[in-house]
Every structure is written in C-alpha cells, then in structure tokens.
User: Which sequence fits this backbone?
C-alpha cells in the first residue's frame, strides 16, 4: 500500500476508525485485567462516544481518499456515526439482557466493537479489498455473538447456519470479485469498466450479487433470516438487522455511485425482479407468523426489497435523490428496528425471550410506555405518518416515481398493505386484554436499568422526531452529500 | 388560531389519558371541555363566512415544514371547512355524551383516542398542503382503529383490521398520486411544492390527469364509501362502540366527500368531468343497493350502516354533477346525514346498552317501554327518509336538482332512492318500537344527559331543514370560486 500518502489530514480523516479500533483493543485488555460487567460496559460507551467526537474533526477535512482502500466523505462519516449510535443502544440493551443470562458477558462488548469496526470500514470502503475485509470483520464478529447464549440449542443452530451460509456467500463474493478483476484489472470501485462488459464481467457481477444478496437476505437468498433472527439473542438480532445490513447498503450506495457495472440493463432487470419478489415473499411469509422475532425477520426481507427500489432508481435517474432516499430510509429503518428489538429484549423474562404474540397480550395496560414504544416502531415499519418510517416511504415513493418504476411501485403498495396487516395484528394483540384479567402472562416482569430506559426513550424520540421534523436529517444529508 | 383548534384536541387527549388517575369522570369532563373550547373558537369565523369572500380564506396560517420538497404546514379555513369543522365539534360532543355510561374500562385512553381522531379529522378539513392533508388523513385512522379494536363488540379485531386496511391501502394510492402530481408540476415549473393553491395551476396531460384523478378518487370513494369499496363499513360501524360509530358515520365518512369536493374536481376538472358518468353511476348504484341491503338486515346497527351507503350515494351524485345545486346539495346531505346517522347510532347504542343486543328480532313494542327514545327515533327516521322540513330533504333535493341538469336518466334512478328510504326507515321503526313484544323487559328511558345530546342534534336538523339559507350561503361563497374556475371546462363538454 502507498503508506507514504498517509499524512496528517489523512490521519484526521481516519480518526473515527482509529478511535474505534483503539476502543476494541482497550476493551480487550481491560477484560484481561479486570473482568467486571459494568466497567467494561462503561468503557465501551466511552469509546463509542469518543468515536462520535472524532467524526467532527474528520468532517471538517472534506472528502478525502485515504489510501486506495478507503474514502472518507460525508456519507461515510454519516454512516459511521449512525452505526456508533446503534452500537451504543445495542450495548445498552445488552447490559440488562446479559446481566442474568450470560456467565461471562464482557466479551460481548468486544465483539460488538469489532462488528462496528467492520461496519465503519464498509461505510468508507472504495475498493473491493476493503469491502471484503469489512464484511468479514462483521460476519466473524457476528458468529460468536449469535451463539453467545451457547447453552441454548437454538442459538447454536442459528450461529452454525449463519457461519456456513455466510462462508458460502463470502466465497461467491470473492470469486465474483476475482472474475471482475481478471477482466478489468482494477479493484477500486471508481475504476470499473466503461467499455468492455464481457460475459465474464457479467458473471462476476452476478456472483457479487449473490454474495451481497445473502448478507442482505433478499429473495431468493432469504431462507436463513427467520431462523437466525429467532435464534440469536434479541440485542444481537438488533445488531444483525440494522448495522450489518446497513453497512452493506452503504457499500452499495458507494458502488452504485462510482461503478458503471450496476448500470447495465441486465442488472436493472435482475434487481427489479429480486426487489419485487422480496417484497412479496417477505410480506406473505410474515402474514401467518405468531412469533414476533420471525415476523420482524420476514418483514426485514420486505424492507430490503423496498430499499433495492432506491438502488434501481439510482441507476435510472441519478444518484442525488436516490442516495438521499437510501440514507434516510436506512436511518429510519435502523432506529425503528432497534426500538422493536430493544423492546423485545427489555420485555423478555430472565429464562426465555418474549417472542410469541401471546407474550404481548394486554401490554398496553401492564406496561403502557413499552407498549407505546413498540406500537410506534411497528407503525413506523408500516409507514404511518408522524413516524420516521413514513418519511422513508415517502422518499422511496418519490425516488421511484421520479425514475418511473411503476410495476415495482404497484408491488410496493401491495406489500405495504400486507405489511399493515401483520404489524397491526401485533398492535391489536397488545391492545386486547388478556383473558386472565389484567395480568399478562410472561411480559412485564423484567426490570430495566436507567441505561436501557434511556436508550429506548432515545429511540422513541428519534422515531417521532424524524417523522415530525424530518428536515433536521434531510439538511444533514444534503450537507453530507455536498462534502 | 387554526393550529390551536387541532392542538387543543390533541393536548386534551393527552390530558384525558393522564387525568384518568383523578377518577373515571375526569377524562369525560376534560374531553367535553376541549371540544367545547374548540366549538367556541369556531364561532367568530361564522360572522365572516356570510360575506362574499372571492375565494379568499377566512383564516390561514402557513409555515415551512420540509423545505427540501416544498412542504409547508399550511392550514386554511373557508366556508366548507367551517361547516364541517362545526359538524365535527357537535358530533364530538355527542360522542362523549353517549359514551358517558357505555365506556367503563380504560376511560382515559378511550377519550384520548376519541379526541385524537377528532384532531385528525379537523386537520383533514383544514390542511391545504397536500402532504399535510395526507398526514392527517392517515393519522386519524390509527386512533379510530384502536377505538374499534379495544372497546368494540364481539368481532372487533377483524372489523378494525378491515377498516384500517381499506383506508390505508387506498390512501397509499392517493399518496402516490400526490407525489406524481408534484413531480409533474416540478418538471413543468422547476419547483417542488405540495401547496394546493400552487398545484391548482399544474398543467397535466389527459392520460396522466386521469390516472392521478383515479388515485385520489379511489381513496375518497373508499372513505365515502362508494359501492364497490363499501364492504368495510358495515363491519366497522357494527363493531365500534357507540361513540366510535357516531364519529365514523358522522364525521369520518364526510372526509371522503370533502376530499372529492376540495381536491378531485378542482385539481383535475377535465378528467373528473369525463369520469363523472361512471362516478354518478356508482352513486346511483350505492343509493339503491345500500337501501336494498339495509332493508334486509336484522342487526340494527348494520341496518343504519347500510343506510349510510345509500345516503352517501346522493353525495357522490351531487358532487359529480359539479354545478351549484349539486355540490350544495352534497354539502347539505353531508351535514344532515352526519347528524341523523349519528343520532340513529346513538339510539342503537343506547338500546344495546339496555338490552345487550342489536338483533331486531329480539326487539319489538319498545315504544311503551322507552317512549322518549321511540319518539326521538321516529324523528330521526323520518329525517333520514327525507321528510320535507328536515335537513336531509333539502340536501337530497338539491343534489337531485343539480344532477338533473346533467343527466335526467341518472336523476330518475337516483330519485328512486327516495322511495327506498321510507321502506328501510319505517321497517326499523316497526320492528323495534312496534309490533309484538318478544321478551319481558324493564328498561330505563333516556336520561337528561341523553336528552340534551339528542335535543341539540334535533335542533340542528330542524334548523337546517326549515331555514337552510345560512348554511347554503356559507357553502356557496366557499364553493363559488372553484366552480367558476372550472366552469369553462364544463361548458366545453358535449
């Protein structure tokens, strides 16, 4: 690598990633010296806060390629901040969740930090090598996280599944990159071919798509999703559903802007079919779910389909509106999904997780605040106004209409209709009183610490704020795009 | 001031929820106070509404909201909104009164949802930015669905779900139409705006205008409801608690008609004129089919629900006639039906509270048991069947008169509705209050609280029926500009 190019501005631009790495190492050492849950938790939060602070000087530098691998610009820093905030909320959920469950909860935070590091690298990636490195860093951190409750059979099963499938997906991805490289001789995104699109490049593109498809779990690579969402501990599911998927979309955003490969007519048709099928399959499968975690898993497949709309729109009508759409929708989706899984984690009794709809019967009356939060996040997923999800949906509608994607928009409307049905089932289940008086069966026993309460309140406020005053984020994104 | 109208109801809802701790009656009084305050705030606007306004708003506030897309927090009030806002407030009060003894569990949350629904409805009537309008349009549905799903009757969850899905999915089509309209306007002018006044100037191709019009029309037709989209209504009305039925029938259905008058015809005059025969055909079908189904019901609330379908058919016919009489008739029918249908639902709810059934096969000869309720029922039944001297007659007569100028054949068929209406109204009276007594009962008649609520609705019906001119004047000044602006297009129609 051309290490000579790493001067002072580059180091400042890289500061968030450096601080994040240092935090991970610091936590590792701290665990070796003093194994105490609260102390490691605080150290993690402090590290994440320092990372967020480091974004400020990095932002003042402006867009800057740091080595051939990374490019620190407004979008990269925006996503890094988003991931850090998500990571902090996941840590806050995990603090309560792990307190009585795990024998050694400390390493959880270490793995969380490395996962975030991978996500940060992905967000800044401008090169196939950093793409792959970041992706593997996330995946490898996620295996032990999913299996963190290693005495639970389902968690082990989920981790094994994820390990195998993720490995296969990485293989596809690597092979695809190799094929593209063999024809174009370039690994950086911007240097993708402009003229020669041979069969081999197309094959490479398809293989890359397969790899990315597994990570994002859109149709037809979605089969792992429900089992792993269900098997993993709720805070890990929150991380998996938001940060790991968001990071891959961040790469797609960059790749879509820089590379000509995705602008081929073929890739538009293929992506269109995948997006439409994901919307339908995800929503239809979620209809009959009695398990909230599985329901959210299938709904995430549908949401990935919606997000692909933005990627397709980007090819058709330019990057400005579409990338803003993608960034806003991802933010809204991240905040909303974190709130949903946070609520699940907070409501789970110590011996199991609150998963079935029956666990939520009468929640409005036993835990009104939690019920309100969960309702808000479900309505946001459904895209009801005054929530973040609605503005995201509005953005998608606008971007897709602008690009003239009428059939996909039709599917989007149908999918949203189906989605409403299963989200509302949960809301109505919470509103319906349980048969045995006002005491619900499982939920409502766990006691929350201040940390988890703060995190949940923060997420609830964010959902509302993004829904009521979306201009705050829109202006910020416009600023990020200009940098 | 306009924002305060909505804010008061919203804050009142929160207060009512919290106020439950002070006792079950506290939320009721808080709700009543919030609604009364809103009513008082509306009064000053009436003074100005009688004067010719030349299309200017009676009151208006505008603030930028999402400048990126030219979305503003733009509320405005004209005569049409004023009449419907007044109706909302009146029926909101009635809904609180009628829920006084019926709702015994979770009183605070009930009134919170009730007030939030009303806040959403007022927002719909006042919003003049299309994005804002859509936000209120969707937001009012959520608390309404909760009202049905929590305090409703035996089959409440399914009914609430059906209601929600129908309105939301059709709403998405409208959102799509709104966005495409804005994008087309943006292509022509280079500026993003969701403002109604600006979008009135949008130039659209014939085909595009038709599809956009259809997107709006379906959303409003579902809410109205017009015939192929009406199937959510009987379930929602039947399963809702009485207060919910009052709001649904009295106010929520009117938002659909309001949308047609405010948006569909002014924004897409030509496409709507071409579509008018179909829409009027749907209206006539609704009148006859709704009446037919109403006659066949055994469930009292279901019967009243189907009469709503029938009456809303007149609104559809009147609106799409798109001349002064037609639209004025539609507005008048909206007000009259809002009052009479709400009153009938209140009666049905009152009877259900006393008898624990809505099944008319188990009623009969109730006149001797509850003479006051019976007399009130007779009053509103004959109002619903269109007895001259009461409000509904004025509305339906004007709607038919307007339609006659467009199509005599349609009018003739629609007028058959005036024959069907007495049949179902009188069968209701006969089966419930006359005939043979089925079961031994000891019922209490209306109390003072119910009498006051019914009395106000009766006064309003009488006033609108005997002296409709003030209301007609108000709506005339509000409607004249849009009618005049689109009149050119109408004359060029063959």
Assistant:
């Amino acid at each position: 690598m051309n290490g000579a190019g790493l001067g002072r501005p580059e180091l400042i631009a890289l500061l968030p990633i450096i601080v994040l790495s240092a935090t991970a190492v610091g936590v590792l050492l701290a665990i070796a010296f003093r194994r105490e849950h609260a102390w490691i938790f605080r150290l993690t939060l402090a590290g994440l806060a320092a990372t967020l602070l480091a974004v400020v000087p990095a932002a003042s530098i402006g867009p800057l390629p740091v080595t051939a691998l990374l490019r620190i610009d407004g979008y990269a820093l925006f996503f890094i901040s988003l991931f850090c905030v998500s990571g902090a909320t996941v840590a806050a959920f995990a603090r309560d969740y792990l307190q009585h469950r795990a024998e050694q909860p400390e390493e959880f935070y270490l793995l969380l930090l490395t996962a975030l590091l991978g996500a940060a690298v992905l967000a800044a990636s401008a090169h196939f090598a950093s793409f792959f490195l970041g992706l593997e860093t996330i995946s490898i951190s996620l295996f032990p996280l999913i299996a963190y409750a290693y005495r639970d059979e389902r968690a082990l099963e989920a981790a094994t599944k994820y390990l195998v499938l993720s490995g296969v997906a990485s293989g596809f991805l690597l092979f695809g990159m190799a094929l593209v490289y063999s024809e174009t001789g370039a690994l950086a995104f911007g240097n993708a071919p402009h003229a020669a699109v041979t069969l081999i490049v197309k094959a490479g593109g398809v293989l890359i798509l397969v790899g990315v498809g597994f990570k994002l779990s859109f149709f037809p690579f979605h089969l792992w999703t429900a089992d792993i969402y269900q098997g993993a501990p709720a805070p890990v599911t929150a991380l998996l559903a938001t940060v790991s998927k968001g990071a891959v979309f961040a790469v797609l955003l960059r790749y879509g802007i820089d590379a000509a490969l995705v602008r081929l007519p073929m890739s538009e048709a293929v992506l269109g079919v995948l997006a439409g099928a994901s919307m339908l399959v995800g929503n239809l499968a979620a209809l009959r779910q009695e398990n909230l975690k599985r329901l959210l898993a299938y709904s995430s497949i549908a949401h990935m389909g919606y997000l692909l709309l933005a990627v397709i729109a980007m090819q058709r009508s330019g990057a400005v509106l579409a990338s803003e759409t993608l960034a806003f929708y991802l933010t809204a989706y991240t905040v909303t999904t974190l709130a949903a899984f946070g609520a699940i984690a907070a409501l789970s009794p110590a011996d199991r997780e609150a998963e079935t709809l029956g666990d939520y019967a009468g929640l409005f009356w036993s835990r009104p605040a939690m019920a309100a939060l969960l309702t808000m996040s479900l309505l946001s997923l459904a895209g009801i106004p005054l929530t973040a999800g609605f503005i995201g949906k509005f953005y998608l509608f606008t971007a897709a209409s602008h690009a003239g994607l009428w059939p996909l928009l039709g599917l989007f409307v149908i999918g949203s209709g189906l989605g409403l049905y299963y989200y509302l089932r949960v809301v109505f289940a919470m509103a319906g009183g349980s048969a045995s008086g006002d005491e619900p069966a499982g939920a409502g026993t766990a006691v929350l610490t201040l940390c988890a309460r703060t995190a949940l309140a923060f997420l609830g406020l964010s959902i509302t704020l993004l829904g009521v005053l979306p201009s705050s984020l829109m202006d910020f994104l416009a600023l990020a795009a200009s940098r | 001031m306009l924002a305060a109208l909505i804010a008061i109801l919203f804050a009142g809802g929160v207060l009512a929820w919290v106020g439950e701790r002070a006792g079950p009656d506290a939320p009721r009084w808080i709700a009543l106070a919030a609604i009364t305050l809103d009513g008082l705030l509306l009064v000053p606007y009436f003074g100005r509404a009688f004067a010719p306004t030349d299309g200017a708003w009676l009151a208006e506030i505008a603030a930028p909201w999402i400048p990126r897309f030219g979305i503003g927090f733009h509320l405005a009030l004209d005569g049409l909104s004023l009449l419907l806002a007044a109706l909302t407030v009146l029926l909101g009060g009635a809904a609180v009164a009628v829920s006084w003894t019926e709702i015994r569990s979770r009183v605070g949350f009930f009134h919170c949802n009730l007030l939030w629904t009303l806040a959403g409805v007022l927002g719909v009537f006042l919003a003049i930015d299309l994005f804002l309008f859509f936000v209120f349009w969707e937001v009012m549905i959520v608390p309404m669905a909760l009202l049905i799903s929590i305090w409703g009757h035996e089959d409440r969850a399914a009914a609430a779900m059906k209601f929600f899905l129908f309105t939301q999915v059709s709403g998405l089509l409208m959102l799509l139409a709104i966005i495409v309209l804005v994008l087309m306007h943006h292509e022509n002018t280079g500026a993003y705006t969701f403002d109604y006044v600006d979008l009135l100037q949008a130039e659209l191709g014939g085909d595009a205008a038709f599809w956009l019009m259809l997107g709006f029309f379906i959303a409003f037709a579902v809410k109205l409801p017009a015939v192929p989209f009406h199937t959510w209504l009987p379930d929602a009305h039947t399963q809702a608690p009485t207060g919910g039925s009052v709001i649904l029938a009295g106010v929520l259905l009117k938002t659909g008609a309001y949308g047609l008058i405010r948006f569909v015809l002014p924004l897409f005059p030509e496409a709507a004129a071409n579509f008018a025969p179909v829409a009027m055909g749907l209206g006539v079908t609704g009148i006859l089919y709704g009446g037919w189904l109403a006659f066949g019901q055994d469930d009292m609330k279901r019967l009243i629900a189907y009469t709503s379908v029938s009456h809303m058919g007149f609104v559809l016919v009147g609106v799409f006639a798109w001349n002064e009489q037609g639209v004025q008739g539609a507005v008048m029918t909206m007000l009259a039906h809002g009052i009479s249908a709400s009153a009938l639902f209140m009666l049905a709810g009152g009877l259900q509270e006393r008898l624990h059934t809505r099944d008319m096969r188990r009623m009969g000869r109730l006149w001797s048991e509850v003479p006051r309720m019976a007399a009130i029922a007779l009053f509103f039944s004959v109002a619903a069947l269109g007895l001259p001297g009461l409000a509904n007659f004025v509305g339906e007569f004007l709607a038919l008169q307007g339609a006659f100028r467009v199509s005599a054949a349609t009018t003739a068929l629609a007028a058959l509705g005036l024959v069907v209406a007495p049949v179902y109204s009188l069968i209701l009276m006969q089966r419930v209050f006359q005939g043979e007594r089925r079961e031994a009962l000891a019922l209490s008649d209306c109390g003072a609280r119910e009498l006051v609520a019914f009395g106000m609705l009766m006064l309003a019906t009488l006033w609108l029926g005997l002296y409709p001119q003030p209301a007609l004047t108000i709506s005339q000044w509000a409607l004249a500009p849009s009618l005049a602006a689109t009149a050119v297009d109408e004359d060029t129609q063959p």
Notes: Chain B is about 75% helix and 5% strand. Residues 489-494 of chain B have pLDDT under 50 and may be disordered. Residues 156-189 of chain B form the longest helix (34 residues).
